[in-house]
Amino acid sequence: MCIKIITFDRLLNKYFNNYIQMKKNRKKNWIIYLSIVLVYFSATYFLYLIEKGKEGSNIQSFSDTIWYSIITLTSVGYGDKFPISGLGRLISLLFVLGSLGVIGIMINRISNKISKMIEEKRLGYYGTQFENHIVVVNYNQFAQQVLTETTNAGKKVVVVTSKKEDVDSIYHNFDKELVFVLYHDYIDISAFDKTNIDKSISVLLNFEDDTQNLVQLISLREKYKNLNFVISLNNPSLKETFRSLGVTFTLSKNEVASKLIASYVFEPEVAKLTEGLMKSSVKEDDLGIMQFKINKENIYLNQNYEDEFFHLKKDFNAILVSISKYYENDYILHKNPKNNIKIELNDYLIIICDNNGRKQLQEKF
Length: 365
Description:
With 365 residues, the protein is of the alpha/beta class. The protein has helices spanning 2-51, 62-73, 86-122, 141-152, 165-173, 210-223, 239-244, 253-266, 268-278, 305-316, 355-364; strands spanning 134-137, 157-161, 179-183, 202-205, 229-233, 249-252, 287-293, 319-327, 330-335, 348-354. The protein contains 11 helices and 10 strands. The protein is elongated, with a radius of gyration of 34 Å. The model is unreliable at 1-6 (pLDDT under 50).
C-alpha cells in the first residue's frame, strides 16, 4: 500500500510540475507577442508623426502608415506609399527587417506543418481504408512471422504498435500495399477506429503477457461487439477462459511447437506435410490449406459434398478435406464427413491445393 501511495504522489507531482511549466511558457509567450505588437504600433505611430505634413510625402494619415507597414512586412512592396524623410526611412528599416522575420516564420510554420503531416501519415494517424484485413495488436518476432505468412497469401494486415521504431522496421520488411501500421498506445480504444477494425475479418491479440491479452480483449469487445478474436497465449490452460469470453480461436505457441516437434520424432514425413500446409503457398507447387465461403452465386451451392470432392480433384487438383457448417451462432467443423452432406449457403469448404489451384478457386469463389 505504501508503495502505491508513493508512486501516486510522485505521479501527481510530475503532472503538477508540468502544469506549472506549461503556465510559465504560456506567460512568456504572451509577453513576447505583446512586446512585438507594442513595438509595431509604436514604430507605425512615430512614422506617421514624422511623415504627416511633410512636403511631397504620400503618408498623410495613420491608415496610410498601417497600409505601408503591412505591404512592407509582407514583402509585397506596391510602392504607392513610402517615407521621404531621413528619420522616417530609418524607422521603416524596422519594417524591412521585420519582413525577413515574417517570411522566415511563415516558411518555418509551413515547413513544420508539412513535416508534421508526413510524420502523422507515417505513424498511421490518418487511418486506412483496408477491408477484409487482419488487425494485429502488438508487434514482436511472432507477429513478424504471422505477417510473413499472411502477406505471402496476399492478405492485408494492420499492425497496432506502441513502439515508434517498429513503424520503419515493418515498412522496410513488408509491402505498404498489404501492410498498414498505426503507432498508438493500446489504452485509447477509440484509436482502433483508424484501423478500420469494423471491416476486419479477424483481430489477433499478441501480447507476451496473457493478462494484457485479457484486458485488451475486454476493452475491445465492449466497443466492437461482432469481431472475430484470435489470441496468442503463453499458458494453454487459459484457453477455455478466453473462449468463454467470445474468442473465436486461441493459439498456444508452445503447444503448437511441442506437437510439431513430437510429430517429427514419431512421424517425420507427416510432420513435413503438416509444416508445409501451415505455410502460405508461394511457389506454384507449394501446398496450402484454405477455406472458401459459399455465397448465393457459388457453383457448389446445394451440391453434394461427395460429388464435389471428385470435381475439385479433377478440375483443380484440389482435395476437399472438410466442411464447416453454421449452427446456432457458431460454426461446427465436419472433418472428412462420412455421410453425404449437402453444401449450403454460408458453409465453408476446407480445401488443400497448390498455388495454381488456389488462384483458380479464388476466381470461382
